[in-house]
Amino acid sequence: MKKVIILSSIVVGITTFISCGGVQRDPGRVYMPDMGYSRAYETYATTEEQKAELLKQGIHFSNTPVPGTIKRGELFPFLLTKDAAGDTTNYHASREVKNPLTSMDTVEAERLYLVNCAICHGPKLDGNGPLYKGGDGPFPSKPATLVGDARYEAMPEGQMYYSVTYGKNKMGSYASQLSTMRRWMVIVYIKSKQAAAHPAGASAGSSSSASADSTAKK
């Protein structure tokens, strides 16, 4: 009797193993697959032609977040949107936006600046980064001198944040490279260097309207 039971157990085990087919890789039917599996696209890899083809399939893909949404982990939402071409309304309004950071890691802020900004604006914030290199670099126009030029020393933090977020003139947006908090950290670092360059003067963040307006027109 025991032999029959053992033999039956072996047969059942073999049958079960064969029916499983080893590793099961087919999940079978998935309820609401769009909720379970996202379509992954490279941020900068999708062309306008590819977007048009996706649209024909009913896929609305624009590389940008849905208006009014905030990504997970976002701590300091910036409510001003990018101005339309030829408009500067929100750029001017950004002067009133205050930096929400009350404390930060200054070493990390410096690292973020050196990694993301120094290539153009220079490690010394003098506008002489590797891309300009005193006029011998590949970039023909000298980037903004963040320390040493009254226009940028007078620029309010909110306006700097707008420029870093949406880009301004020759500078592109850094919103995909730096999170909201890190953008503010970089700006605090810049302002600290500006203040250190004028220890006996007024705060670099305080400026006259004329200075700010001249900056906005550049």
From TrEMBL:
Among PROSITE patterns, the record links this protein to: CYTC, PROKAR_LIPOPROTEIN
Keywords on this record? Heme, Iron, Metal-binding
Give the region (Disordered) as residue ranges: 197-218
Q: Which Gene3D superfamilies match?
A: Cytochrome c-like domain
Q: Where is the Cytochrome c domain?
A: 104-194
Q: Which InterPro entries match?
A: Cyt_c-like_dom, Cyt_c-like_dom_sf
A Pfam family matched in the record = Cytochrome_CBB3
Q: Name one GO molecular function term.
A: electron transfer activity
Q: Which PANTHER family does this one have?
A: LIPOPROTEIN-RELATED, QUINOL:CYTOCHROME C OXIDOREDUCTASE MEMBRANE PROTEIN
Q: What is this protein called?
A: Cytochrome c
Lineage, top ranks: Bacteria, Pseudomonadati, Bacteroidota, Chitinophagia, Chitinophagales
